[in-house]
Design a protein that fits this description.
46% helix; 6-stranded parallel sheet; 14 helices; 3-stranded antiparallel sheet
């Protein structure tokens, strides 16, 4: 996968145009709020545009079928290119369509959210949500290219930025103590007046971490599992709240539980735990309302790390280091969720 770091909107348009030399048609899968932005709007007059539903609703079987029909009606073929222009939901969906339409066509990702830039658009995981359960079906298909233009971040709300910080903090906790210290020392520059130079450096660090992990374990059979730190409970919370809780916020809560369980196992100290919780709280992990722990845990039955009735769960053994605990007790998860 070729990664292109773009500094101006003109470079963005030129880079997309370059693909027309290799493909007969370009189809951009995006959402209305994205294509209306000053940066993306010029693309609407040049390429085929499919507008998806908002948020997680776009990752449905119904939307997938509509896209396939649209592509077929517009003569999309094996020599056409799909472009996922949006956040993690769009890049997940675009990758799934590309991996299955005509048994596979090429696609690239242009992430427009911080979460998409540091995590969702990289690594080749694609997915749809089925029956209210997140990422229940999916494939592995690496995009042909990734175009990163961080000026898209200027259009994001503080809440949307915090969704991206969740995945950044995940990388820090599982594999980069220095990054954790950077976040801790610059928290006000992240949640206050945003320092985009700092974010650009952090994005590059996170991309390199993910590429390194995926290169070792492309199909999620071993070390790549640690990238799911906080995601077991996080995904269950998303499904429980019917996706009214954003992915980033759900992962922040999931990391709070996983960090607490790492504490009671004495893998991390009270001081380390307090530092982690201090950052999580600044990113917005207030108490959850109407939380029925038993019902949340029902969603774990379809968690991809639940194999043969045995749950593999990711814990810390230090800030900057994580591991997979096999056959993890649901009783412990109940204990951990009681802190939310």
């Amino acid at each position: 996968m070729k990664i292109n770091l773009i500094n101006t909107s003109e470079e963005l348009y030129i880079k997309i145009d370059e693909y027309t030399n290799s493909y007969d048609q370009i189809f951009i899968i995006t959402q209305e709020n994205i294509i209306k932005t000053k940066i993306a709007n010029p693309l609407s007059s040049k390429y085929n545009i499919y507008l998806c539903k908002d948020a997680e609703e776009c990752k449905s079987l119904e939307e997938y079928q509509k896209i396939v029909k649209y592509l077929a009606n517009h003569k999309c073929n094996k020599n056409s290119l799909l472009v996922g222009l949006g956040g993690g939901t769009i890049t997940d969906l675009c990758g799934f369509v590309a991996s299955t339409y005509m048994r596979g066509i090429s696609f690239i990702n242009i992430p427009t959210t911080l979460l998409g830039m540091v995590d969702a658009s990289i690594g080749g995981k694609t997915a749809l949500n089925i029956g209210g359960k997140r990422n229940l079906i999916g494939t592995f298909r690496e995009p042909s290219g990734l175009i990163l233009y961080t000026q898209f971040l200027n259009s994001l709300s503080k809440k949307q930025l915090r969704d991206g910080y969740a995945e950044i903090l995940k990388y820090a906790l599982i594999m980069d103590k220095k990054l954790f210290q950077t976040i801790e020392n610059n928290i006000n520059s992240l949640i206050g007046n945003v320092d985009f130079d700092l974010i650009n450096r952090i994005i590059e660090i996170c991309i390199n971490h993910k590429i390194k992990i995926v290169a070792q374990d492309q199909y999620d059979q071993g070390i790549r599992n640690i990238l799911n730190f906080g995601h077991t409970i996080g995904h269950a919370l998303e499904s429980y709240y019917k996706f009214t809780l954003s992915h980033g916020q759900a992962i922040l809560y999931g990391m709070k539980v996983a960090s607490y369980l790492s504490l009671i196992k004495q893998n991390i100290s009270q001081e380390q735990y307090d530092k982690i919780v201090n950052i999580l709280n600044k990113f917005g992990t207030t108490s959850l309302l109407d939380l029925d722990i038993d019902k949340v845990l029902e969603f774990l039955d379809t968690d991809k790390k639940n194999i043969g009735g045995q749950l593999n769960y990711i814990l810390l053994n230090d800030i900057g280091s994580a591991y997979t605990e096999k056959n993890y007790s649901k009783d412990n998860l109940i204990k951990g969720m009681e802190i939310l």
